Amino acid sequence: MNEGLQCLQDDHAWVARRPAELLYARRMSKPSIASPPADRIELMETFVRIVEAGSLSAAAAQMGTTQPTVSRRLQALERSLGLRLLQRSTHAMTLTADGERCYDGAKELIASWRVFASELRGAEDEPEGLLRVVAPHAFGQQLLVGPLSDYMRDHPRVTVEWLLYDSTQDRTPDFVGDGIDCAIQVGEVTDPSVVAIKLSEVPRIVVAAPSLMAGRAMPVHARELAALPWLSARNFYRTEVLLSHVDTGEAHRVTFRPRFTTDSFYAMRSAAVRGIGVGLMSTWMLADEIAAGRLLHLAPQWRAAALPVHLIYPPSRFHPARLRRFIEAMRAKLPAALAEVTRPV
To answer: Are 184 and 307 in contact (CB under 8 A)?
Structure first.
């Protein structure tokens, strides 16, 4: 009897506990309120697109979805973070302070996720997406366009943003802040925080127009160049150049006061052709001018040290296929492109 009563009491206790257990089980079986990682990436991508497009409707059009969908994603992201990211009114939309931090962090997180996913898919994954490259003006406008065209032809799912300026001579690009994948740099790499791959090097010689040399003796030794008017390339030399004899190795430093200073090699070449002054330039830019007689090679046994050409990019455990393939293309094709446009001078 006591055993039966105990069993009955146990049954009543189990029945009493059952609703609580069922409720707990139901709660545990429901999807979590927090979005899974893939959904959060989607929410952040939507937020970045809203900011860059300038409005919810523009972002929806770019993403091929509806404005209510974009609005719901934004609200879901704000709820999950517990932050207000955008201030919206009838006529304007602005980022809050939290929104600015979220925007910068979201861009970096999205880029990292895409790189990680690309790496996991394997080395044979087809490159896709946007590749942003910084290149020097002269190289980027002429010499690199051929290898770049071949790369884009081989990888049709990649789009390229080709940014031409010579700031890499003074500072390393802000790879993360500006969303830059890599940069081409002519000259030595002094920043230890980047990965630098040497692609090739460019010889440099001294040239002048026949009009400038009219009535003057053609210089043979480097010291004779100092008496001539000079052009200056502010990114590489300003008031002096170091030249070496190709056979003996003798070195001589030529000092001068430039008549014309520029940061554009195209401008320098044009100034040299018009007889403004003597210039030290890369041979790949000069072969046609020398062959046509528009420029003369001065003191031909004396040359400046060749400038190395590097491809630089930030270190990372993962790099997207589009960057890996671009590096391979530049390493394979740039030396050939240089050889094609450089004739013996």
So the answer is: no
pLDDT in tens, 6-46: 443 444 444 334 443 433 344 334 444 344 444 888 899 89
The residues with which 186 forms a beta bridge, in sequence order, are 309
- Please name the residues in contact with 87: beta carbons below 8 A apart, sequence gap of 6 or more: 93, 94, 95, 96
- Can you state the angle between helices 37-53 and 97-121, rounded to 10 degrees? 120
What is the pTM assigned to this prediction?
0.65
Cα distance between residue 34 and residue 31, in whole Å: 8
Other residues' Cβ atoms within 10 Å of the Cβ of residue 71? 17
In tens, the pLDDT along 222-250 reads 999 999 999 999 888 999 999 999 999 99
Domains in the chain and their CATH numbers? 37-121 (1.10.10.10), 129-201+309-341 (3.40.190.10), 202-305 (3.40.190.290)
Q: Give the rounded distance of the alpha carbon of 102 from its chain centre.
A: 22
If you write DSSP's letter for every residue of 60-97 in order, what string do you get? Answer: HHHHTS-HHHHHHHHHHHHHHHTS--EEE-SS-EEE-H
Tell me the CB-side half-sphere exposure of residue 34, using CA atoms within 13 A: 6
